TrEMBL record:
Source species of the chain: Streptomyces marianii
UniProt keywords, alphabetically: Membrane, Transmembrane, Transmembrane helix
Transmembrane segments: 34-55, 61-79, 170-191, 197-217
Protein name: Uncharacterized protein
A Pfam family assignment: S_4TM
């Protein structure tokens, strides 16, 4: 794909790119709602099973329902949202490659991309303010191509790694608290190990499986993005220190496509974190990444920074 003639800063708010962002936002929301439905169902069944500890009439139904949900989840109930998750990832990928001027990877993304009529149909479901989608990247304006492309990818890598690592930590603590609560309840009620397993952990097995899978996927995503972030930063500094030779540009653009592959693969593996969790830290994270982009801006102006 030919290098765009205008800066990323200006092109990111073009109507056709905003349409892609709207469609991606709607699709991501649908995928998250499916994931949230699994969470609530797991919590409900776990609660019914735990209630059986105190209400004998709920003991057998709670245990059986919890076990059935765990088996259904392990057998593939979690796969129901794969289609929506994949579409959301591909729509986001379409936005990225068109804005950054990168080639489409037909091996990972398939081909062709999401049809234009499908993009328009999904985008019509967007109900929030368009202003939320504007200025998607805080571009380091002093950087020239391909450093501007890599700078934008650094923002996505850094922000995504931070949010997902934070969410994985929260889920892990939640699992530990739930397990500890079960042990405390068992000790307080003088329950045997088999009774504790049967009346607490079997009903909540679906919840535990979901939590472990979610945390593991988010840890993996964070690790992959942090590794890519370090590689990109080293490449940018090396390029600037050598005076930004033109012969290195193809190599850096190839690196940018490899970074985009990491982003696409991790988006295909796990849905985004819940909106409420993302918004909880959004303001502080945004300030940090605006500052990070300013540092890159200074790097482009003065390689000794």
């Amino acid at each position: 794909m030919a290098a765009p003639g205008t800066s990323i800063l200006h092109r990111q708010n073009d109507p056709d790119l905003l349409l892609l962002l709207k469609a991606a936002s709607v699709s991501h929301s649908r995928a998250k709602r499916l994931a949230l439905a699994h969470i609530w169902l797991s919590l409900l069944l776990a609660a019914v099973g735990v209630a059986g500890v105190f209400v004998p009439a709920l003991e057998t139904p709670g245990t059986l329902l919890g076990l059935m949900w765990a088996l259904a989840y392990a057998a593939g109930a979690r796969l129901r949202g794969i289609t929506e998750k994949r579409r959301a990832a591909l729509l986001q990928e379409m936005f990225d490659v068109r804005l950054l001027g990168l080639p489409w990877n037909t091996v990972l993304g398939g081909g062709p991309a999401v049809p234009a009529q499908e993009v328009g149909r999904v985008a019509r479901g967007y109900r929030a303010s368009e202003e939320r989608l504007r200025d998607y990247f805080y571009e380091a304006t002093a950087l020239q191509r391909p450093l501007d492309v890599l700078a934008c990818q650094l923002q996505t890598l850094g922000w995504g790694a931070r949010v997902r690592r934070r969410y994985a930590t929260a889920v892990t603590y939640g699992l530990l608290v739930w397990s500890l609560a079960g042990v405390v309840t068992g000790l307080a009620g003088s329950m045997t190990v088999s009774d504790l397993l049967l009346h607490w952990f079997v009903p909540s097995l679906g919840l535990l499986l979901l939590g472990v899978e979610t945390a593991a996927a988010q840890w993996d995503t964070a690790g992959a993005r942090e590794h890519a972030q370090a590689v990109v930063m080293d490449a940018m500094r090396a390029h600037v220190s050598r005076g930004c030779p033109a012969e290195n540009v193809p190599e850096l653009l190839q690196l940018a496509r490899q970074v985009q592959d990491v982003l696409l693969q991790t988006r295909l593996q796990q849905v985004r974190v819940p909106d409420w969790f993302f918004r909880r830290f959004q303001s502080n994270d945004r300030e940090d990444f605006v500052q990070a982009m300013r540092e890159l801006d200074r790097l482009g102006a003065d390689p000794t920074v």
